Amino acid sequence: MLAAGMGSRYGGLKQADQVGPDGETIIDYSIYDAIRAGFTQVVLVVRANILEEMKAIFDDRWGKLVHISYSIQEVNVPVAGIDQLPVRQKPWGTAHAVMVAKDNIDGPFAVINADDFYGAEAFQSLYSFLKDNPDPGEYAMVGYILKNTLSEHGFVSRGITTSDKNKCLTSIIERTHIERLPDGRVVFTDANSILQELDEESFVSMNCWAFPNSFFTEAEHLFRTFVTTNQDPQKSEFYIPTVVEHLMEQEKVRVKVLECGAQWMGITYREDKSVVAKKVDGYINDGIYPPSLWNSLLSSRS
Q1: Considering the chain, what is the average pLDDT of its residues?
Q2: N or C: which end of the chain has fewer CB atoms below 10 A?
Q3: For 301, what's the count of Cα atoms within 13 Å in the CB-facing half-sphere?
Q4: Domain that residue 179 falls in
Q5: Cβ distance 58 to 31 under 8 Å?
Q6: In this model, does residue 10 exceed pLDDT 80?
Q7: Structural contact between residues 44 and 54, judged by C-beta atoms closer than 8 angstroms
Q8: Is residue 7 part of a domain?
Q9: What's the pLDDT tens digit per position in 198-252?
Q10: CA distances from 109 to 162, 208, 249, 250 (A)
Q11: Are strands 265-266 and 138-145 parallel, antiparallel or unpaired?
């Protein structure tokens, strides 16, 4: 779970913000859904300055139910055999965040954002894929329908995907400043500041992936090249899709798109918190989640 984000648009540590009635965070709901799907280990990638706070929260809640470990993502953390990275202030990106967790992962694994509420269906799809696909050339991505991923309180960025007839990924195109206009159209702002319409039924990447352990080797190789040849070492970021698209171009991997019709939720803006909390209340009233996640699982296993 990638939980090292700065939360600049949110204005605080949204990873630990409460959205459930018993103090649950979005991370708690993800852990709950992951355990029920079959996952047996959770790795939280965090910044050094929030490590103790995160451990105090999640070790106490989940330590008796699943193995939890922590990896630190900072701009100077050595990875890929590079002892001294270029000096910079901005984080290196999502693929770098995955790479710092290498020592805590010894098998196939899933990757998610800590501040995104994916729902049980996504974790079940990820687990089933990892369990049934030992091929190191097979990756998977959970694809959400664009209209189910928009924020009511501002623009978002999404990776718009295309797939072939076998539902294998053919491309991801990053679009920024996506929003729904008052007339109902979903648009993004292009490089020339012109509004372009998007198909709201398109599938998008929400950084929800399934990888074999060999992903680390491939990412490290590409990161070494990225660091040594990058023309903007202060701002450029090393994203998961960067690695995936490179390997697809080399025909080293196939990426299965696990289509998901669920409503994605996330906290990008502070106003999003009340929307997520209200929807969580609805899930509890409908019996989808219990009022207290960890106590429910502890009781069921006692």
Answers
A1: 91
A2: C
A3: 11
A4: 14-301
A5: yes
A6: no
A7: yes
A8: no
A9: 999 999 999 999 999 999 999 999 999 988 887 676 778 899 999 999 999 999 9
A10: 24, 11, 23, 22
A11: unpaired
HSE, side-chain direction, 13 A CA sphere, residue 165: 0
Yes or no: say if 125 and 248 are a contact pair by the CB < 8 Å rule: no
Among 154, 137, 156, 297, smallest CA distance to 217 is for 137
6 found inside a domain: no
Tell me whether residue 8 is in a domain. no
Q: What is the CA radius of gyration of the chain?
A: 19
Higher pLDDT: 18 or 231? It is: 18
Neighbours of 49 (CB within 10 A): 10
Question: Does this model's pTM top 0.85?
Answer: yes
CATH of the domain at 69: 3.90.550.10
241 lies in a domain?
yes
* Amino acid symbol at 281: D
Number of domains making up the chain: 1
Percent helix, strand and coil across the chain, each rounded to 5? 35, 25, 40
Q: Which residue has the tokens 């098998």?
A: 107
Q: Which residues contact 218 (CB under 8 A, 6 or more apart)?
A: 243, 247, 252
What amino acid is encoded at 47 in this protein? R
Q: What is residue 280's DSSP assignment?
A: H
